[in-house]
Amino acid sequence: MTTTVLIIENDPGSGPGRLLDWIAQRDLAPVIVRAHAGEPLPATSDGHAALILLGGGMLPDADAASPWLPAERELLRTTVERDQVPVLGICLGAQLLAHTFGGEVRGQYGLPEKGVTELNVLPAAQDDPLLAGLPSTVRAVESHQDQITRLPADAVLLMSSQRCAHQMLRIGRSWGVQFHPEVSAARVTAWKPESLRAWGFDPAAVVAEADRRAAELEQTWSAVVGRFLDLARSGTPDLPGSGRTGRTVSGATVGP
């Protein structure tokens, strides 16, 4: 069994966070490629159990400033089209998924989201391998001004929020989330107050809400990401409407 998870880091300020603990809990090991530091990206995801694309402050086609992005998009395209392994894209990673497969991403579009945000879980999530059993609303940490404004034609929309219509999507065995399941409440307390004020947020209120929701965030996203990692270990899932068959997703308790 393949026991490594390939993680692409696009920004030194947007690392894997709690993902490392959740990966270790399943006897998997991370292989982190720090693309922002010039480390070369592999051409495929062969030899790994899953691919995770982390966040970053750039747009998914900002190739001049971030010259590794064409290789990252090609890695993503190859992985998804060949159905090599499950994919999880976080923030920029979700935007890369949408952009690569025909969607649209716009910079500084709409109102920003920063800190703990309420998400609406849509009907399509009811039989999704990662989300089945979630209540109609959950919370997650957000930190973005850019957002996906149009989904690819074959994408399934799974979550939305008041300020951002496209919070979570799925294409085949690839999921993209605009929010940050890997960010803990403790990490939020380290955010610079001046940056929060510049985005129109009260720093004290953002930190207080993160502290209040810390246990809830851990319970919800450790279970959801845990399901993703279980898929990585067990092989191709039986996705709704996909016609694929595979091993059953192992159970996980998803928090309120």
UniProtKB/TrEMBL annotation:
GO cellular component: cytosol
Region spans: Disordered: 235-256
Residues annotated as domain Glutamine amidotransferase: 48-185
Biased composition (Polar residues): 245-256
Record-linked CDD domains: GATase1_1
PROSITE patterns in the cross-refs: GATASE_TYPE_1
Gene3D superfamilies: 3.40.50.880
Gene Ontology molecular functions: transferase activity
InterPro entries tied to this protein: ChyE-like, Class_I_gatase-like, GATASE
Signal peptide: none
Transferase keyword on record: yes
UniProt keyword list: Glutamine amidotransferase, Transferase
Superkingdom of source: Bacteria
Protein name as catalogued: Glutamine amidotransferase class-I
Organism annotation: Kribbella flavida (strain DSM 17836 / JCM 10339 / NBRC 14399)
